[in-house]
Design brief:
single chain; mainly alpha; about 70% helix
């Protein structure tokens, strides 16, 4: 990984965490849908990143969010779960010999691949996040409903950011 890519990812990490903490922390629609755009950073980490480093980055990202949200490891567990699902999805759908593209963006990978990838990662993140946050099966349907609406809101926001900031690659 070259130094330019590392610098871009460090800036992306700070910007997305600042947006999440300063702007989106208090944004919630009737306590049903909450956007978590910081997961875009974990989704866009380059393909060549070693798995141990990816888990470490996910852990630090979740721990940082937990410090600001006062959630005692909920975001950390959700981010590490997202990293696990990301590794599984990429290993199943991509060729292991070499990657043509440096990172899994919408412009590099195509709309269909990116939507499936983002949906599965967001689903795993939100399920862990909301069920650990609630930690009560008595509110199972309410938690699933919150998870569903938050997935839709987060995916909409992530795809919108991808459309705004990344150009489509000519195929």
């Amino acid at each position: 990984m070259n130094s330019k890519l590392v610098l871009i990812n460090i800036v992306r990490w700070f910007v997305l965490l600042l947006i999440q903490i300063l702007l989106l922390r208090s944004l919630s629609f009737y306590n049903m849908a909450t956007p978590f755009v910081y997961i875009l950073f974990l989704l866009l980490i380059p393909f060549g990143t070693p798995n141990l480093l990816l888990y470490l980055i996910a852990f630090v990202t979740g721990l940082t969010l937990d410090a600001f949200y006062d959630t005692l490891g909920v975001h950390t567990a959700a981010c590490v779960t997202l990293a696990f699902v990301r590794i599984l999805f990429i290993s199943i759908t991509m060729n292991r010999d070499g990657f043509d593209e440096p990172e899994p963006t919408l412009g590099n990978m195509g709309f269909k691949w990116f939507i499936i990838y983002a949906f599965l990662c967001t689903l795993s993140h939100h399920l862990v996040l909301f069920f650990l946050e609630t930690f009560n099966l008595a509110e199972f349907s309410y938690t699933l409903l919150r998870c569903f609406f938050s997935i839709i809101f987060t995916l909409f926001t992530v795809v919108l950011i991808e459309f705004i900031f990344y150009n489509r690659k000519m195929r």
